[in-house]
Amino acid sequence: MLKHTLGYPRMGARRQLKKACEDYWQRRIGRQELFVTAQRLQEEQWRLQEAAGMDLIPCNDFSFYDHVLDTTLLVGAIPDRYAPVVTDLPQNTEADLAFAMARGYQEHGLDLTAMEMTKWFDTNYHYIVPEFRANQQFRLFSNKVFNAFDAARHMLNATPKPVLVGPVSYLLLGKEKDPGFHRLELLPRLLPVYIEALQRLHNMGAKWVQLDEPFLATDLPAGAADAYRYAYTEIAKHCKGLRTMVTTYFEGLRDNMSLATSLGVCCLHVDLVRDPGQLGDLLPMLPEKLSLSLGVVDGRNIWKNDYGRSLGLIRQAVDTLGEDRVMIAPSCSLLHTPTDLELETALDEELRSWMAFARQKLQEVAELEQVFHGDTGLWEKNNAAIAARAASSRIHKPSVKARTAAITERDAQRTSAFPQRQSLQQQRFRLPMYPTTTIGSFPQTTDIRSLRAAFKKGNLTAEQYDAALESATREAIRLQEDIGLDVLVHGEFERNDMVEYFGEKLEGFAFTQHGWVQSYGSRCVKPPVIYGDVSRERDMTVRWSEFAQSCTALPMKGMLTGPVTILQWSFVRDDQPRSETAAQIALAIRDEVVALEAAGIGIIQIDEPAIREGLPIRCADREAYLGWAVSAFRVSASGVKDETQIHTHMCYSDFNDIIRHIAAMDADVITIETSRSQMELLEAFADYRYPNEIGPGVYDIHSPRVPGTAEMEALLLKAAEYLPARNIWVNPDCGLKTRKWPETEAALRNMVSAAKAVRAGVKETV
User: Fold this and answer.
1) How far is the first Cα of the chain from the last one, in angstroms, to the nearest whole number?
2) Is 303 annotated as ligand-binding?
């Protein structure tokens, strides 16, 4: 049986690529040093996979920013506004162009907005959304995939396997920028470029090519099935001799099983972690020459593989197909897992024995083949680890389970309906039309990060640390008052991460030192590990919110992360339903909300940016998820009086298909990302006649460019076309943690000026 991986983490075990990219953007290093870092990382990852015994090793899975963006460059689908950057090549490299498209560009007299960004299916990874015009033309533009294959071919004894986003999924991942056409209509123009690339790879010596088609695991839109048939018929016709592997993941094939098995490719990969039951239906449908790649090692979580369960699936496949038509692999790219468990020297040995990161998952793939062929020692060792975790006394707390079981419908209801609450809140806060605020965090400068590191190392006392944080908080409050914001935040300088911070104060969580996972670009997150029942034993944020409110007469928001986001952005235990864990977290957050209210905090924001991300890929599964997800939020928010205003925040999501459930969350104010999409997301709220207040983002915080007052004013005026002016708030798209202070201050001053201008216009109209 061939063993392979679909992709490997890009950043490096110690986030070398992140640091190199950010140093390059800040001009602390040059291109050569950036490229050398990237080359070393790729070579290290290839060698590591070869040493682990992988027979097919992916190449071109590496990216400076995003693999979908790389595909856009490969096929030359570069929006016209970046023509000046393209013209400057080779003065600007392909990497510079990619950075401009992903982050925006504000240099040399140019002011180019970034491309839109959204979530990669139900993960916390963000991809850059392709933009398509009705007259879109494609051409082979980037050489990245060819350079990667050439480098891997000369370095490895194993077979390099170029990885590309498949042509149909690539189109479906994009967005039409002109009315009157569907992006799948572009397939006849796109496909010749793919075929040219595949032929070139074959001529260079490629034996296998991996084409990722995750949309085959979704409810396909109209025309997609025909698009798949056409695309892969053409590829088979023009790329004879090249072995093509189509990969699906994040869900089972279900009703697309017949389509996926009829594409004429050499191998089909399926996710047997998300849907192990599909194997029985799939095996009888496979054509005689189609091999099957079994995704049996979880590419989305950090728990050790249960060899008994995986071997049952492998034996089932081998009994039907024979060993030569079966491959073993992780369920999806290991992009979504941390790199190496060996670095976790501070994690206690019992917890470590339950886990596997990307490097260890390679070992699991290799060991599964060995156990299949009779290695009883590996089998017994794995069985012991699985049994020890199941029997551990650290996992289950009867009191937590009893409280969760006692949740009633009343626990998820505010005392009064929104119109009554809105009236009471307006009387309490007396905010102007178009009130201004931010989403929560302010720049985490080098000084702040160094301060936190010094405290963790014991170089600062708790008193010294708190005094420094108080000083930073007071400074942020003074700046917000000077800028003219209406509702302030304390800046979150005490927080390392919006999920990890809360996990550190809750029971049932564990933490890693190097468990970083790429979220977007150079941005990495370090998800906590939920290994047991969750409970709140003490205050988590009250001290800092209370202090911040004492520094100003203006309203100060208390800032919390919501239960679904804490769940979604953690590595979650897999021994009970996710809904049960979400309910436990919801009760913990509810206790904190009540404590904040008791401390005099009148506006409390419970961020839920991941609620759309957690939506199951298949529509049939969504109602059940949304039922418990919305209930978890409402439980967390419903313990307060009507006069207390509850905010929530969501970012980089389409809301059309879940707007009814967003309304059911019943937050008094919701803030959302809308600047990159030019307020398009508000159409869903307008069509639904969303009754509560909304803060559509007018400032893209994922780009270093500073938008002007007129630009933000135009966005607010556009928002007023969708929403009642009395319900509109003014805010950035998201938190400002990753930005620098000069650009942050400039952008916020422009934002307040824009709000004042629109406010004045409303008065003139009245």
Assistant:
1) 74
2) no
Q: Answer whether residue 584 shows pLDDT above 90.
A: yes
96 known member of a binding site: no
Contact 501, 511 (CB under 8 A): no
Catalytic annotation on 661? Answer: no
User: Which residue, 267, 299, 271, 281, is CA-closest to 214?
Assistant: 271
Give yes or no for a contact between 485 and 748, defined as CB atoms under 8 angstroms apart. Answer: yes
Q: Is residue 524 part of an annotated ligand binding site?
A: yes
2-79+115-336+349-391 and 398-445+475-765 in the same fold? yes
CA–CA distance, 390 with 241 (Å, rounded to integer) = 48
Whole-angstrom distance, CA of residue 42 vs CA of residue 16:
11
pLDDT, tens only, 642-690: 999 999 998 756 677 888 898 999 999 999 887 777 777 788 788 888 8
440 is in an annotated binding site: yes
What's the CA angle centered on 206, arms 200 and 212, to 5 degrees? 90
Please give the CATH topology (third level) of the domain spanning 2-79+115-336+349-391: TIM Barrel (3.20.20)
pLDDT in tens, 186-215: 999 999 999 999 999 999 999 999 999 999
Tokens coding 274: 């998300």
Q: Which residues does 79 contact at the CB level (< 8 Å), separation at least 6?
A: 101, 115, 131, 177
* Residue 613 labelled as part of a binding site: yes
Instruction: Tell me if residue 661 falls in helix, strand or coil.
Output: helix
| Catalytic one of 269, 490, 661, 702 | 702
Whole-number Å distance between alpha carbons of 327 and 246: 13
The answer to the question of whether 497 is labelled as a binding residue is: no
562 marked ligand binding residue: no
Question: Which of 250, 240, 244, 242 lies closest to 228 in space, CA to CA?
Answer: 244
Hey, which CATH number is domain 398-445+475-765, 3.20.20.210, 3.60.20.10, 3.40.50.10490, 3.40.50.300? 3.20.20.210
> Could you tell me if 676 and 114 are in contact, meaning their C-beta atoms sit under 8 angstroms apart?
yes
**Contact call for residues 403 and 591 (beta carbons, < 8 A):** no
Tokens of 366: 């290799």
Residue with tokens 């206790």: 591
Where does the pLDDT of residue 764 fall: very low under 50, low under 70, confident under 90, or very high at 90 and above? low
Closest CA to 69 of 138, 165, 213, 172: 165
Please tell me the distance from the alpha carbon of residue 24 to that of residue 33, in angstroms, as a whole number: 9
